[in-house]
Amino acid sequence: MAPVNRTVLHRVPAAGGTLEPITALNAERKENSHRWPHFLPDGRHFLFTARSDVKENNLIYVGSVDSKEVKALVAAQSNAVYAAPGYLVYARDATLMAQRFDVDTLSLAGEAIPVAPSVSHSTASSSAAFGAAANGSILTVRPAITRGSRVAWHDRSGTSGPPVGPERAYSEVRLAPNEKLATVAIADPDSGNRDIWLLELASGSLSRVTTNPANDWQVAWAPDNSQIAFASDRNGLSSVYRKSIDAVDEELLLRLPGRGAFPRDWSADGRLLTLGIDSGTGQAAIWAVSLVGDRTPFPLGRSGVREYDPRLSPDARLIAFESDESGAPEIYVAPFGKSSRRRVSSGGGTQPRWRADGRELFFTTMTGEVMAAAVKGSEPIEIAPPVRLFHGCGGSPATGPSSIGQRWFEVAADGSRFLLACAAGGAPSPIVVSVDWTASIK
Questions:
Q1: 139 near 434, Cβ under 8 Å?
Q2: What pTM was estimated for this model as a whole?
Q3: Nearest-angstrom CA–CA distance, 140 and 277
Q4: What is the mean pLDDT of residues 37-42?
C-alpha cells in the first residue's frame, strides 16, 4: 500500500501493525512516488508504478515482499495488472495494451498489442480506468471522454453564476485576497506534471506562473496579492517555494529531508505560513514557519493522528484544521499554539475556510455539502452548530460534489459567495465489459 500520495509502497501485517517501507525511490530517475501495487499469482511478487518528474522515467516495475530489489518492465504512466494465461495489461497514450508476461521469470515477451482503442487515462496520477479478471476471462474498460472543469461563483443557496475563464482540467483553485485573481493547477496532458496558472476573474484570461518540469501546485497567497507560496517536487519530496506572480525568480523557503511540505495558509500580517507536513507513512501533520527571523518550522497539532489543512483566523488567534483523531476526518478549531480544541463538524468534514471577520467558519462534508458555523471569541471558543448551505457543484449526497481535484472550494471575504471548480456537464462514460478478450490477441 501507499499510505499517502508522495511516498513509497509499504507493507503491514494482515492483523495490523506498523507500516514498513518495501520500496525505495530512485533519486537519479527523479521518482517522486510509488503507487498502484497489484499482486502476482504467487502472492509474493507485485506490480507497481513509479511516478517521476521526467516523463520517460515513469515505469512499471515488479517487486517482492521479500526484498527491496525491483525489476523494470516497461515505460508507462499507468497502473498495471496481470491476467491469465500470461498478460501484463496497462495503458499507453489512452490506449489499453496487453503484452505477454511470464510470471515465473518475471519477463516480458513479444510486442505490446492494443486491446482497447480508448481508455480513460490520467497521466497526472499515472492511472487508467480498467480492470481484468485474474483468470483472464473478463476485461472492463471505461472509455476516455474529454471533459474539463469550470470555475464559477456560487451564492449561499448554491446558485451558480456564469463560468469564469475557459473550461480546462483544473486540479485546484485558490482565491487571492483581493478576489480579483485566482490560481489554478493544470496538468500537462503529455507528462501529467502540474503547473500553476493565474486566472483573472473579471476577464477569464489565463496566464502561466510556473514552468518547471516537476509538479508545481498547492498554493497559498500572500496577503498583499503579490506573491504565492507553492509546493514543488522538483527535489523529490515536495518542498515549499515562493515567487512573485509577475516575476520569474523563485525562492526555496523550506525543504524537510524525509518529509513532504505543502503550504496551506499565509497569515494576514504576512509573517507566518501554515503547512501540511507529510511523513510519507500516512501521518500528515500541521506545522507553521515564520517568514521573518528564524525560519525553523514548528508543529501545531497532536502527534499520532493525521491532521491536515491548517487555516488561520484573520487575527491569527485561532486555527481551523482537519483531524482524524475521532476515527474519521472532522473539522476542529483551536487557539493558535495551544493544545485545547473544539470539534466543529459531525459526520465528517474537510476544507475549513474562514470568513474575513473570523465570525463564520465554512467547510465541506465528505459528501460535498457546504456547511457554515458561527464562531465567537477565542478563549473560550464559542461555535454554533453547523448549518447546511448547499450541495457543492450541484451534486447529490450519494455521489458527492461533481468536482475535479483536491481544493475546489474557496470563500469570498464576506462569506456571501463561493468559488468552485466543478466538472463540466455530460453523462459519464459507460463501462465496457469484454468477455474472453484474450482470444482476439492470441
A1: yes
A2: 0.81
A3: 37
A4: 94
Q: Is the torsion defined by CA of 151, 262, 7, 101 positive or negative?
A: positive
DSSP letters, 131-170, are EE-TTSSEEEE-------EEEEEEETT--B---EEEEE-E
Whether the CB-CB separation of 285 and 299 falls below 8 Å is answered with: yes
What are the cell numbers at 4? 499517502
3-state SS, residue 326: coil
213-268 tens-digit pLDDT:
888 999 999 999 999 999 998 877 789 999 999 888 899 998 887 788 999 999 99
Locate cell 524537510: which residue?
256
Q: What value, to the nearest 5°, has the Cα angle with vertex 423 and ends 422 and 428?
A: 150
Residue the block writes with cell 495489461? 89
What percent of the chain is helix, strand and coil (3-state, nearest 5)?
5, 50, 50
Q: CA-CA distance, 187 to 171, in Å (whole number)?
A: 8
Q: Give the span between the Cα atoms of 69 and 54, in whole angstroms.
A: 22
Sheet of 67-75: strand order equals 31-39, 45-52, 59-64, 67-75
The amino acid present at 25, given as its one-letter code, is L
Cα–Cα nearest to 328, from 310, 305, 351: 305
What's at 91, amino acid-wise?
Answer: A
Q: Are 383 and 113 in contact (CB under 8 A)?
A: no
- Asked if 35 contacts 49 with a C-beta cutoff of 8 angstroms, the reply is yes
Stretch (H or E) spanning 99: strand 95-102
CA distance linking residue 32 with residue 62, whole number of Å: 17
For 337, the 3-state DSSP assignment is coil
The three cell numbers of residue 120 are: 480513460
Looking up cell 498495471 gives 80
The mean pLDDT of 352-372, rounded to a whole number, is 94
* Domain annotation for the chain: domains and CATH numbers: 10-145+428-440 (no CATH), 149-423 (2.120.10.30)
